[in-house]
Amino acid sequence: MNYKGYEAVVEFDEDAEIFHGEVINLRDVITFQGETVKELKQAFRDSVDVYLDFCKERGEEAEKPFSGKFVVRINPSLHKEISIKAKKEGQSLNSWIEKRLCEA
């Protein structure tokens, strides 16, 4: 499920006969539940909106779903090797790595 860039996973609790979900693409915790798919979808949207409103009321910036940036520590010799490969292929190091990650 996706709403305003926030993605969620949903599970069904057979014993309680209820769907419950959690937003997965941020560090803050946003959960929701519903007995029907319609209720679940509405609860998801409501939970995201409540989170955004809460952050706004506190004067805080809501956490954005993944910025697209992350730091990876690797062996310096590997760093050199992939930098050379990227240059040989006429790509930036970021583009070269992104391409390889997509292939994985």
Can you describe this structure?
The protein has about 100 residues and is α+β, with helices and mostly antiparallel strands. The chain is built from three helices and four strands; from the N terminus they run ββββααα. Strands 1-2-3-4 form a four-stranded antiparallel β-sheet, with helices on one face. A hairpin with a 2-residue loop joins strand 1 and strand 2. Helix 2 packs across helix 3. The longest helix has 21 residues. The radius of gyration is 20 Å and the shape is elongated. The two termini are about 25 Å apart. The model has no long low-confidence stretch (mean pLDDT about 95).
Q: What topology emerges from the helices and strands here?
A:
Blueprint: E1 2-3, E2 6-13, E3 18-23, E4 31-34, H1 37-57, H2 76-88, H3 93-103
Keywords, please?
single chain, 104 residues, alpha+beta, four-stranded antiparallel β-sheet, 43% helix, elongated
Classify the helix fraction into a percent range. Answer: 40-55%
Order of helices and strands: EEEEHHH
Radius of gyration: 20 Å
How many β-strand runs?
4
Q: What's the average pLDDT?
A: 93
Task: Estimate the global geometry from the Cα principal axes.
Answer: elongated
Main beta-sheet annotation: 4 strands, antiparallel
Q: Helical element count?
A: 3
Cross-sheet strand order for the largest sheet: 1-2-3-4
Question: Which class best fits the helix and strand makeup?
Answer: alpha+beta
**Distance between the terminal alpha carbons, to the nearest Å?**
24 Å
Task: Report the sheet-strand fraction.
Answer: 15-25%
Parts with pLDDT < 50 across at least 5 consecutive residues: none
